[in-house]
Design goal:
MetI-like fold
Length: 272
């Protein structure tokens, strides 16, 4: 009976894995074919000649290189900002007492419930008033700290034993020393998860970069790839090649940090 349950579980997980991998395999197949839209059947597409021409065209395009640099720069700066600021705010909410602390925390929870589309118009007007249209400020500053990141870090630090920090204070350590040398190393699992989540979210972000940029030199990868969609036709080969290249950094990051991700997600799930 136990063997049957295990086989059923493996079968179910295999189906889920196939469902997740199928879109990526389809994207890869289209990217390796010249004019894939010209093949009327799947068998014809499958048996067509494999070529890397779509990839070479994308990589040799000056615009694509600029899109890639913009996405990398924006995602990296926003990720670093979130790790630093969410750690500061999360530590203050978890360990310090100050006036309005509960109200401040409740406001963070309230902001988490607001969809980003609701703030689209007021944020756009604010960016226009600051003169940040077509600038890195518009792509970076609004996202340097996120309420979800503050919430995750605050909850994680609260689960840490405060005696470690008290011992450091007895030894004469200041608050900044405790934060960077004591709390930060203990928070590496959750900060790794937060960094990967923020990087992935900003790497794939389309709506706000599309609103805040109207020059080709400031477009990010998702916005740039959208311009492969014409009014009458879609350049599927180059679009899928560009999408495959843009997905590569995420896959590499997951391959290197998947253990950290699992540790961060399961930390605190068990108590002795």
């Amino acid at each position: 009976m136990l063997r049957l349950r295990q086989l059923s579980l493996y079968f179910l997980l295999s189906l889920i894995a196939i469902g997740m991998l199928a879109p990526m395999l389809w994207m890869l197949l289209l990217s390796l074919r010249l004019h894939p839209e010209s093949y009327p059947t799947f068998s014809g597409l499958l048996n067509a000649q494999t070529t890397l021409e779509n990839y070479t065209d994308a990589l040799n395009s000056d615009a694509f290189g600029r899109y890639f640099i913009n996405s990398t720069l924006v995602a990296a700066v926003v990720t670093i900002g979130n790790v630093i600021f969410c750690l500061w705010v999360g530590y203050a909410l978890a360990r310090r007492n100050f006036f309005g602390k509960k109200l401040f925390f409740m406001s963070i929870l309230g902001v988490m419930m607001i969809p980003q589309q609701v703030i689209m118009i007021p944020l756009y007007r604010l960016i226009v008033e600051f003169g940040w249209i077509n600038s890195y400020f518009a792509l970076v500053v609004p996202w340097l700290v996120t309420p979800l990141g503050v919430f995750l870090v605050r909850q994680y630090i609260q689960a840490l034993p405060a005696e470690i920090e008290d011992a450091a204070r007895i030894d004469g350590a200041g608050e900044w020393y405790i934060l960077w040398r004591v709390v930060l190393p203990l928070c590496k699992p959750i900060l790794t998860v937060l960094a990967l989540y923020i990087f992935l979210s900003n790497w794939n972000s389309f709506l706000f970069p599309f609103l805040f940029t109207n020059e080709e030199s400031m477009r990010t990868l998702p916005v740039g790839l959208a311009f492969y969609l014409g009014k009458q036709s879609i350049d599927w080969g180059h679009l899928m090649a560009g999408a495959s290249i843009s997905a590569l950094p995420i896959l590499i990051m997951f391959a290197f940090f998947h253990k950290r991700i699992i540790q961060g997600l399961t930390a605190g799930a068990l108590k002795e």
